[in-house]
């Protein structure tokens, strides 16, 4: 084990970067009667204080993404040659079309043009005013702090300490723990940003990315609190979160060993930078983790350079994915709200839910399917159900992870070079649901037997 020289300046850079990141993403604080983290407070404050400005920003960033993608598409087809490099915005024809449709839809949503049913709080109003506003702000702000954290040693420190369990349990490098942590405490948007950056630097291969993005792109702790509050189960929030955490871990351990994930390519898209093999005691791991972190901080950018690059990268990423989220997300929630599609699909599951002893099976069964459109929709549908049914849905909805109002399009768009395809995500949603339904039903009965419901 060769340790780096512990020089004062790199140690100081790492400690400050780690402290700032930990404060922003991990420090629990009380805010409006709820426990959250400064990152959530910052995003909520911006959205609530400057909603019109955020709306203009989202409109402009979607239009910019669509225009730049179109220019990249024309350049790729040699229709004309540009004087500047727009290769970052190159995409498949399908995602180019989705971003262009997003450009057309954005003014409609911003100015509330068209029929009222398009702009209700559960359809277009939710996608535009809640989801896109949140994701649009989360990505550049999160990118600033995550870039500082990663560039100045945080990734090496957490990754080294996590090696003993990440590879055996989930078949990914120890550094993947940071992506997971970023999703848990911040947002799946931030977690996916970390994954993309490490992937482009050679830290992950395609299979690693497939596993991390589909198994660990979780909703944040704060949003699980919103789910519990909506269902009047806030008093059981710790229990709901622990159950959710267990479900995500169990599903990840199973999914990584089954197709389509197990069949993913182990190729890298750049020169590989795999983790160096290492074994030792807990103390040895800590020393090595600190050594790796300090070494990275010594070689890394300054705070100002990392902050600037993170913000610019965040804006570029937002311009790529917001149009796709708007197009696919709006179609998904409209399908859920105005067609009987998911009621019909959920009907065969009613006897199964009933057999598992969950009350209101006619309400719960459709929620197991409709979550593929938007994670929050099942929660709304279950508001009037019995306590056991509410608990079941409160754990199931976030544990399914994959929904096409946001995280699905983001994964397909950000990692089209893996590739992660629509059919893969649908298959994984179905597989997760098959595992989760009996597991959460058993958890629900345990909680009820303890007299907590």
TrEMBL record:
Q: Where is the Nucleoside transporter/FeoB GTPase Gate domain?
A: 133-231
Q: Which UniProt keywords apply?
A: Membrane, Transmembrane, Transmembrane helix
* Segments traversing the membrane: 12-31, 54-72, 93-111, 131-158, 209-228, 234-256, 317-338, 391-412, 424-447
Q: Does the keyword Transmembrane apply?
A: yes
Instruction: Tell whether Transferase is among the UniProt keywords.
Output: no
Instruction: List the protein's name.
Output: Nucleoside transporter/FeoB GTPase Gate domain-containing protein
